[in-house]
Amino acid sequence: MVQETSRDVGPVVLLGPPGAGKGTQSKRLMEHYGIPQVSTGDLLRENVAHGTELGLAAKAVMARGELVSDDLVCNMVRERLLQPDCKRGYILDGFPRTAAQAGWLDALLEHQIFDNSRGTRTWPIVIRLDVDYNQLLLRITGRRCCPTCGRIYNVHSQPAHVYEVCDIDGSKLVTRNDDRLEVIQPRLKAYQEQTRPVADYYQRTGRLISVNGDRPVDEVTEQIYRILEDRV
Ligand code: AP5
Predict the structure, then answer these.
(1) Tens digits of per-residue pLDDT, 82-93?
(2) Does the beta carbon of 26 sit less than 6 angstroms from any atom of ligand 1?
């Protein structure tokens, strides 16, 4: 296991279908490198919970498993990336998710320079988690989340020590509103139709690195650490 580090990491993009493990791995990277996880799904859910204007616009779209409009999401991301905790880098979890969002991010990053020990890197390291379809279904239907600390569990692969109770703060675990069977298919369809082109775009520009996300959580983390250690 790589030791904790406070070196500058720059932007990291975690791509992958619903249930691939983006959130799980982002939280580990966040702790390890001391840079924030910027999860557009979490930010949108917070807005929905607080009944903001953005939350009101996003709520029904998310409940149907469709993508929120590029404009709304990009504005939200811009605001988040301007926060001082993003200066050394950040992990984008669930963004970009359309070709337009990927183009928007490149334009933004063109003006943002991240210094690190080996020089300067502007472009994000893009890592895609590849996971078998049936495994995705099992992961999504078995997911439970802590509403207080956000920790992610799975009844099959990562159960809480006490049934349905968070190990960290004792909150009762919840199932995400969009993890219902009837919403899972539209989410997977949105990924195929709108997010796959994003991976193709990064592949064409030589920036896509694929990881076998079917492996156990610790092994996936090790694969990602190795990629980042080679590049930061
Ligand atoms: P979002 O919250 O981003 O959801 P998602 O992309 O569908 O991804 P998930 O959160 O479902 O999965 P994950 O890859 O994070 O997996 P996790 O680590 O939890 O988006 C929700 C909605 O918001 C969208 O549908 C859309 O409406 C909107 N939205 C968000 N971003 C947007 C954008 N950019 N543009 C427009 N709209 C946007 O793991 C899943 C489960 O598997 C867990 O139970 C976990 O414990 C388990 N698990 C993880 N890794 C492993 C492993 N290696 N082995 C076994 N189990 C594992």
Answers:
(1) 999 998 899 999
(2) no
Predicted TM-score (pTM) of the model is 0.93
* Sign of the torsion angle spanned by Cα atoms 224, 227, 230, 232: negative
Can you give the pLDDT at residue 230? 84
| Mean per-residue pLDDT, 225-231 | 90
- With cut-offs at 50, 70 and 90, classify the pLDDT of residue 110: confident
Which has the closest alpha carbon to 38: 116, 101, 119, 117?
101
Length of the chain: 232
Atom of ligand 1 nearest to the CA of 145: 44
pLDDT band at 9 (very low <50, low <70, confident <90, very high): confident
Residue 202 phi, psi dihedral angles, 5° rounding: -70, -35
Rounded-to-integer distance, Cα 23 and Cα 14, Å: 9
CA–centroid distance, residue 93 to ligand 1 (Å): 8
Domains annotated on the chain, with CATH: 10-35+88-231 (3.40.50.300)
Cα 117 to middle of ligand 1, angstroms: 32
Round to the nearest angstrom and report the end-to-end CA distance of the chain: 16
Asked if residue 17 has its Cβ within 6 Å of ligand 1, the reply is no
Strands (E), the chain: 10-15, 37-39, 89-93, 114-116, 119-121, 125-130, 143-145, 152-154, 208-212
